Structures are given as C-alpha cells and as structure tokens.
Amino acid sequence: MSHLHTAALKAAKLNHLKQLHAQLFQHSLCSDNYWVAQLIKLCTLLHAPPTYVSRVFDSVHQPNVFVFTNILKFYSQLGAHSDVLYLFDKMQKCNVAPDAFVYPILIKASRKWGIVFHAHCIKMGHDWDRFVRNAIMDMYGKFGPLEIARELFDEIPERAVADWNAMISGCWNWGNEVEARSLFDLMPDKNVVTWTAMVTGYSRRKDLENARKYFDQMPERSVVSWNAMLSGYAQNGCAEEVIRLFNEMMSCGVCPDETTWVTVISLCSSHGDASLAEGLVKMINDKGVRLNCFAKTALLDMYAKCGNLAMSRKIFDELGTYKNLVTWNAMISAYARVGDLASARGLFDKVPEKNIISWNSIIAGYAQNGQSKVAIDLFKDMIAKDVLPDEVTMVSVISACGHLGALEFGSWAVNFLEKHQIKLSISGDNALIFMYSKCGNMKDAEKVFQSMDARDVISYNTLITGFAAYGNAIEAVELLWKMKKENIEPDRITYIGVLTACSHGGLLEEGQRIFDSIKDPDSDHYACMVDLLGRNGKLDEAKCLIGSMAMHPHAGVYGSLLHASRVHKRIDLGEFAASKLFEIEPENSGNYVLLSNIYASARRWEDVDRLRGLMTVGGVKKTTGWSWIEHEGEMHKFIVGDRSHERSADIHRVLSETEKKMRLAGYVADKSCVLKDVEEEEMEEMVGTHSEKLAVAFALLVTEPHSVIRVVKNLRICRDCHTAIKIISKMEGREIIVRDNNRFHCFSEGQCSCKDYW
DNA sequence: CTAGGGTTAG
C-alpha cells in the first residue's frame, strides 16, 4: 500500500514540478527567491538532474538563505560534497548568513570540514540548536574522535531519541559493542531506528546470530530494517539467507525499495549467478519498478560479472547524464575484467572526476592482463598527479613488480607503504610474498609470511609456489603439513606447487605419496607427476600414468613427457608425446623444436630436416617472447637480434670484450652467448634467444658495475650459459640471481644454488 | 529538518 502511495505522490509531484516551472516562466517569476526555493525543494524530492537544478539556481540574482539551504540539500543528497563546499563559499560571498538549518547539511557534507563547521557554529551561536547539535554529534560519531561525541551527548539536558540513536551508531562505528549495548539497554524510548542500528552493528561485526536476534525481537520493522538484515547476510556471503529473507519480506507485504534492489542485485553479481539474476530482472520488469542510478549501476555490474557485457554497456549508455562516478568505475572494471583494455582505457580517460577507485580499476586491469609495465607507468602517473594510492593500488603494483621481476621498484613501493602508513591486509601481504618469491628473494618472502597474523590458502600457495620455483622442495612440503595443521584446506593450486617443488628438488617418493593423497587430481596434477617421474628417469611409468588418466590429458601432460624424453634421449617416447602435441596444439613451435632437438642429439639429421619442413608446410611460426631486464628501477625490453636499446653500442662492446675474456680464461665461449653473434641457424634458436637475454644483462652489469641486474621472464639456461655466468660472477665478485621459467639460479663466486640443470 | 539500510577496485 505504502509504496503505491509514494509512487503516486512522486508522479503527482513530478507533474506539479513541470506545471510550476511552466507557470513561473509565464509570470517571469524565475528569479523570485520563494519560488526558486520551492522548485529546488521539489527537484531534491524527485531526484532531478543536477544540470537542471543548477540552471534554476543560476536564474536567481540574489539568492537568499532559503534558496541556499535547498540547493545545499540537493547536492548533499547527491553526495556531491565539493559542490556543497563551493556553494557555502558562494553563500558567504553573497553575504548570506547561514542559519541553524544550513549547518546540519554542511556538517554532514565532508569529514574534512566537519570540525571547521563545528567551530563556525559556536561562533555564530548555533551550537545550542538541537538539530545542529545532533549533526555535530553524528559527525564525531562517524569520523571521530568518539569521545567528543560522548561529551556532547552527556551535556545534553533532554536527550531526544535521535541523540541516543546517533550515539549508538557512533559506538558501533568505532567497534564499541559493549557501549552500544549498554546505551541501548539504558535508552528509555527506543524506536525502529534504534533497533535497526543494533542489527547493522552486529552485522558489521559479522555476528549474524545477534543481528538476527535483534531483528526478530523488533517491535516493528521498516524497509530499512529489512535492508539492514539483508545486507548483513549479503556482506557475509550468505546468499541463500538473503534470498530466503527477501522472499519472506515480499510475503510479509513489505515493498522492496531501491536499496533493497541494490542489495539483492549486488548479491547476484558477487555470486556470478546468472539464473538468479535473470529471475530478479524478470521480477523488476513485472512489477514495473523504476530503478535509480545506484540500482542501475548494481545491475550494470551484475550483467558484467555474469558475462553479458553488451547489456552492461546498454545500461551505461541509457543512464546518460544520470550516471555517477561509481557507474563509470563499474564499466571500466567490466571492460578490464574481460581484457578489453582499449575500451577500459578509453572510458578511464573520459571520466570527469577520477577517484582512487577509477585509478585502481584501470591499474588492476593492466596488471591482471599481462601488461605489468603499463600498470606501473600508470601508477607513476598517479603519483605525479598527487593522487594518494591506497592498499588496493599497492596490491596491483606490488604484484606487477613481481611479474616483471622488478625488485628495485618493488622495494621502492614497500618504502612508500611505510612512508604513507598504508596498512596491508592479507591480500596485500600475499602480493608481497608473490613479489619477493618471483624476484628470488625467498628470505623476505618468508619474513612477510611469518609476520602475518592470519594467513589464507593463497598465502600458503604463493609461498609454496615460490619455494617450488627456487627448488626448495623440503620447505614446500613442510608448508603443506603446516597449513593442514592450521586447518587451512589445500586446493588444487597448493598441490601443483608442492608437486612442482618435489619435481625440482628431486623428492620422488614424497611427491608420489602426496600425489596419491590428492582426492580429485586434474590434468595439471598429472602433468606435474609426469614431470616428476620423467626427471627421475622413470619415463615408462610416466607413460603408464598418462594411460591411466580418467580425463583427456592436456598439452602440459604430454609436454612434460616430451621434455623428459629429450633429457633422457628417449626418441620413442619423444615421438609419442610430440605426435599428441601436434594434434592438441599444432601452432606451438616449441614442440617441433624440442622434438628436433631430440633427433639432433641422436644425430638423426634427416629427421631434423623433415621436422623443419613440417613447420614450414604447417605455417608454424616461431614465437619469440620479449625479455625484460630491470636496471636501476627502469625496465628494459629486448628481443632476439634487437639493437633498439639506446645503449646498444655499449652493450655490444662489452659483450665482445666479455667473449674475449672468456676465451682467455680457457673457456670455449659459446657464440650463442654473445649478442652480436646470434644467428638463426640450426637448432641454436632456442639457446640463442635465451642466452641473449643473459648476455644483455651481463653487459649492463659490466657497464654499470654498481647496479643490480635481474634477468626475468622466458629464460631457460643451457650448460654453456652456466659457464658464462660462473666466469662473470667470479670476475665481478658479486651475486647474480637468474630466473628461468621454473626456478631460480643464484650465482656467486662461481657457485650455483641449483643442484641439477638442463 | 535530526538518527537506521545501498552501487565500483584487490
């Protein structure tokens, strides 16, 4: 009933507004303060577009305090705090003294100015107005210090219900459950708002049992109370409860308002539940509900998360001038999520007033789609524009540093965190663990891990994967036991990490036992196991294992077998694995190269030639990945035969000198180790490509003797390169960390940390 | 005229 009433009222008011406007024009009353004030008041009620309201406002020559009050209210309802402050400024310039009606609006507008306005109120003598006082108390309750709110509360001679309510919410805001409860118990006349505040308070503490207890005991409930309980369940991921309560609410005859829709719609998005979403949309359409900007934004996000980007864009365009910053941000991250970075960036550049979330969305978009360098460059832009990053920004940046192996910039970021006192939560610490392990700094990775108060499965997985890459199998296996002890359930990623560690660390039996303990192994686990058996020379067992698989083996499984066949020179199994791979991924040149390496090592040159022919006929192109080298915080990009680097000449000079030194030291310098000699011939391509990256790194190391060089990405090391590294690290007397695809090699004084190498 | 509920980023 009540919603029908409001809807009718709204329609009537909208009609009234139009008529009023027309009449005002007719009687040239558009500059009359009384009528303008009334008009703006109506605009506020009807959520009129800001452009329209500001036009109405501008038509007044000398706005009075009523006009200002109403327009301030309008912007305050929109949450446009900067406009509120601007108008207050204008108000003073127009010599209009703010009255007791204005201050509550101003005080609520911004955290930053609340205290200033408090002082203002005292000066103007408005601080004894009960509404002003309530607003001030509310402000301190929200933004702190809570003690001041409490002092004000205690000073009030006759406390109104609103004063109690503001104080109770204040206590909840600062996590003071005991105080909130005792105030609640002391309070003489509680109303719906009081009860709802208790429900919200417990929901935010994730204490849903108590929240529900208060909700059930409420003498009466408003839509807001239902919303509070719904959002309590939604925030804590209890999807079924939300649906159940929502249905209960409908059967109680309570009409959902816009907030209800926002809560329920956003629940669908976080669940990615398309069928639930469909049902909701049908319900909304059947009821003929008109959604506001918040709900439309939630709907946009829901479609995006359920994979219907076209629908998202449609809502975005239909919103026209009604969309707010959140709508923009939701659309940006929608594009970023599917990897459409061009569209995301296009929108980002058009956002009228970017906030931290706009930046976070676009930076995370690049970071998650393999464009770590762009992510970091954007972050630098952001800093240059004096936008202060928050934890979420830093998570993306730190993770991007990890992907690039950019430890220098990563360390800068860590300092930045301390300098600006940005606190990291679990995901932040996880990003740090990731970065340190990707950069080969397991000591610091472990230090972060140890320092965490709470760890989740991702913390463990990240560290385990780090140890696996570094070849520290025992540490990885111990972590698996430790997490089980802490009652954190290992997932499929955990087992991939541990098995990889066993494989790299040579723990055959342990790995086998762990593999057998996996309840539901998938293709990735089989691939790890084939790798483990293969590295230990048990190739026939590996083939048997593949035969026993319940599902179709993916390329990784045969890839492991192919690699092992190459190492152990098993032509028969190599041919078997390769033939499967040519079917599954005919475009992957690596498989052809690997098989022909096997033939080459057996000197079966006619087969090598045959494969080459096959590649040409099949149109298989060698793909060469870029390599990145971090040097004094800057990332340098190289590719085979590349001479585009600005210091190319220096690098080449040093390379040839290095080659000479190596020869003098009695080593036969592999020509593929030296950039200038990289030629595309025979089967040297693979070796050549990777050696080149090393070579460039060495060159930088030698030309810049005090710098730290990290070689990252796409690196696989041949024996000859090891020789080269040994000599150079001996010559320079420093430690070099080199990462290859699967592990780290830490060289110092001719020593290498890894036990077996390719 | 106060006080209680809602959308976006990891």
UniProtKB/TrEMBL annotation:
SUPFAM superfamilies recorded for this chain? TPR-like
Select a single GO molecular function from the record's annotations and give it: RNA binding
- The UniProt entry annotates PPR repeats at 64-98, 191-221, 222-256, 257-291, 324-354, 355-389, 456-490
- Report if keyword Repeat is assigned: yes
User: Domain DYW spans what residues?
Assistant: 666-758
Q: Where is the signal peptide?
A: none
InterPro entries in alphabetical order = DYW_dom, E_motif, PPR_At4g14850-like_plant, PPR_rpt, TPR-like_helical_dom_sf
Write out the entry's keywords from A to Z: Repeat
For this chain, the family text in UniProt reads: Belongs to the PPR family. PCMP-H subfamily.
What name goes with this protein? Answer: DYW domain-containing protein
> Taxonomy-wise, where does this protein's organism fall, top ranks first?
Eukaryota, Viridiplantae, Streptophyta, Embryophyta, Tracheophyta
